[in-house]
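Q: Given only this backbone (157 positions), what sequence would you predict?
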């Protein structure tokens, strides 16, 4: 049933991931003399002294696309709660891996470009990934609670 609370949280996961893929930046840094650096899910860009540099970053994009497909699949597996829980765990690991690789990109590649003592700021895309991870965990917990309720009602028969 799509109207269950865990389905609503899975829809939140799906929406948050799609917004990140659509182009919400994960991190932004602006220097004193106009240098900028931004990290998106598919690339990171920088502009230093009028020179623009764009480097593709496909690993987190692929991880997030797999996570979107898996979330859509989990949403319609409501008849098999054990499969939903197992796939929800895999989905949490995919989202966490996406965030981990994004951290790597931010701290190892873009912060040292200019003014390394200045850290930059996380943007809406990063917070959307956090919302997706938390909503996925809550959905998994609700699926487990639902399964335990079904098991307890089977024992009463």
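A: Predicted residues:
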């Amino acid at each position: 049933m799509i109207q269950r609370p865990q389905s609503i949280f899975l829809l939140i996961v799906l929406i948050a991931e799609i917004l990140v893929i659509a182009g919400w930046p994960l991190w932004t840094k602006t220097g004193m003399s106009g240098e900028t650096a931004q990290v998106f899910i598919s690339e990171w860009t920088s502009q230093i002294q009028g020179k623009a540099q764009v480097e593709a970053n496909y690993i987190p994009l692929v991880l997030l696309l797999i996570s979107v497909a898996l979330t859509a699949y989990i949403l319609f597996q409501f008849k098999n709660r054990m499969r939903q829980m197992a796939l929800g765990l895999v989905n949490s690991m995919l989202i966490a891996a996406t965030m981990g690789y994004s951290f790597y990109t931010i701290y190892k590649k873009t912060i040292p470009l200019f003014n390394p003592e200045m850290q930059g700021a996380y943007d809406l895309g990063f917070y959307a990934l956090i919302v997706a991870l938390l909503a996925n965990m809550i959905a998994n917990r609700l699926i487990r609670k639902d399964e335990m309720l079904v098991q307890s009602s089977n024992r009463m028969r």
